[in-house]
Design a protein that fits this description.
Layout: H1 3-7, H2 11-21, H3 38-46, H4 48-51, E1 60-63, H5 70-78, E2 83-89, H6 109-114, H7 122-142, E3 146-151, H8 153-157, H9 169-173, E4 181-186, H10 189-198, H11 210-223, E5 229-231, H12 232-237, H13 239-250, H14 288-292, H15 297-306
Parallel strand pairs: 1-3, 1-4, 2-3, 4-5
Helix pairs in contact: 11-15
């Protein structure tokens, strides 16, 4: 904009016009003496002033591995009244960094921090994440909404990073939310590993076989030993009953109509078989090399523990 054009602008009027375009937001006279600055107006609009005196309900978390039906379950949770669900979150994930050049993501400040020319300590990444979640949860609470965070546990347990070398998403959140409610969902390891193989995700961990998959599965379960667990197979067999159980675990409002809304929910990680009906699906044909690996001890231990037919 030229200097002449700028000279003819009225900043107060411009702010009023911008706010009016945002929707049903009350336009406040910028000349009001009760206003110390424009920042006061922005603070009020964002709801930050209210959140300081409001102790919000802690967020909830859902944890599952890739190709275990987690997207289906998360879609139903996202359709519950007042729920705002963040899909596939892991601030310590390194998967998005495995690129030849920095990825364009203008709304992702954490990724921008990781991609900065000067490396920063991991604790700064974690503190940035916790601060954003805290502000988000408090602000959503003023609207009567509940924040649910869907973990991207695959980043933690099925990449070339040693799982025991870093905290889980839940462990990161516990210091800011001691009353954090969480649930773990699992699926038969033969089905989930078979889906990984069909999706050609074998570059994520080595050796890429059923035994190694189950060893990492066991590490995942050990880190969430104290968290209530739900089987995907039970959910598709009795969706309403298991959804009510999940709502009770997470202290979310149960609404059976959410089961019929999955076709309207868009979500990252939706890599499985599509469809708007919740039902048991036949097992896909598995390669011969997977069939041979069924004798693996870790695989059979998982099946015995969680009631799966090996």
């Amino acid at each position: 904009m030229t200097e002449k054009a700028c000279a003819g602008r009225n900043p107060a009027r411009d702010l009023e016009e911008v706010l009016s375009l945002l929707g049903d937001v009350p336009v406040v006279d910028p000349g009001d003496p009760s206003r110390d600055s424009v920042s006061d107006l922005i603070e009020e609009y964002c709801g930050l002033a209210v959140s300081r005196d409001h102790e919000p309900t802690p967020p909830c978390t859902i944890h599952h591995l890739a190709c275990t039906g987690g997207s289906l379950i998360s879609k139903v949770v996202a359709a519950l009244p007042g729920v705002v669900l963040l899909s596939e979150i892991d601030p310590l994930s390194t998967m998005e960094l495995a690129r030849e050049k920095p990825r364009f993501a203008p709304t992702d400040v954490i990724l921008a921090l990781k991609q900065a020319a000067r490396p920063v300590p991991e604790r700064i990444v974690v503190n940035t994440f916790l601060a954003s979640i805290g502000t988000m949860n408090a602000s959503l609470g003023t609207l009567g909404h509940r924040l649910v965070i869907r973990d991207h546990a695959h980043s933690h347990f099925y990449t070339m990073v040693e799982p025991d070398s870093r905290p889980t998403l839940r462990e990161l959140l516990l210091p800011m939310a001691a009353r954090l409610r969480s649930v773990v969902t699992i699926r038969h390891p033969l089905d989930s590993f078979g889906a990984l193989k069909l999706n050609l995700w074998k570059e994520d961990f080595h050796p890429f076989n059923l035994e190694e998959y189950c060893i990492r599965f066991q590490k995942f379960i050990r880190r969430y030993e104290d968290v209530p667990l739900v089987r995907y197979e039970d959910f598709v067999a009795s969706p309403a009953i298991v959804l009510e159980e999940i709502c009770d675990i997470l202290n979310l409002p149960f609404d059976v109509s959410a089961l019929g809304m999955i076709g309207n929910i868009r979500m990252t990680g939706d890599s499985g078989r599509t469809g708007s009906t919740i039902k048991k699906r036949p097992r896909r044909d598995l390669p011969d090399e997977i069939e041979i690996q069924r004798s693996s001890r870790p695989y059979r231990d998982i099946c015995a523990r969680f009631g799966y037919e090996p």
